Target: Deoxyribose-phosphate aldolase
Amino acid sequence: MVNEDSLLNDVSAEKISLGKHNHRPRNGIEPFDPGLVRSTNINRSAVERRVAGLAGRRSVKGEAQAAWLLKALTCIDLTTLNGDDTAERVKRLCDKAAAPLRADIREMLGFAGERVTTGAVCVYHRFVAIAVDALKGTGVPVAAVSTGFPAGLVSYDIKLKEIESSVKDGAGEIDIVITREHVLTGNWQALYDEMRGFREACGDAHVKAILATGDLKTLTNVARASHVCMMAGADFIKTSTGKEAVNATPAVTLVMARAIRQHFERTGQYVGYKPAGGISTAKDALAQQVLMKEELGREWLEPDLFRIGASSLLADIERQLEHYVTGRYATFHHHAIG
Model:
């Protein structure tokens, strides 16, 4: 089992720097390297063996678990991406993002005077300006899904215009979807050119590249797409839109985390990671955090390098933290997300 004391020293309630974003230099744009892409291959059996034993070998409990969950809360991109979204729903979500933890729980945890927020609010372009206005003064950025989310099958010119429009409305982060066809047909140059254009259109806004890993068929494709997007300047690589049949699995997290590590070792450039889709419980969040720490290190537990795209996750984390400080479990509706 993992040593809980060492985890607590790394991610403790005293050192957690809640809601604060470090400002490291952005990932740069490199020339396309087809040799690196061709040489990338993933052994699925080895990946599956690595992730299969995680649940049995890792345990984070008590005060250490509370600290990790509090940190996870600050890394959530609180998300609503539904066809029936309304301005009022988005405003409620923003209120929750700015104060995600009830005041009495925060006080019992020793953070009465601290600002605790989620990492961002993630919405469709239609609601960017509304969210920016609702979050004014909170320090919480707005992330806009873009480029024909979720399928990404509109024209390239429209994708660029959508990015530019969201940036103009105040989005500080843009979650783009790649063209899966480029991956499935092995057209890596086209994927690089597309991603580079997206990065340039974002300007100062950070760009998260959604790979839609459930559509990419193989872990080798996931790894190769990760490298191409990082070469082209992605600030984050992200698993899924949340609309695919398979989303953020531990195997995909391992493959993408190792691609990030290889990119860092090769270039010295930091790239963040965002699992999204199907992460709805505190246990799910802890599993993702443990993998990030083991594969990438302590730095990748901060919101400038790690986000979790989720909606219902926040309610379960708040519920678990309430249990930690009171010894009682509340019903889920007691911790509505917005």
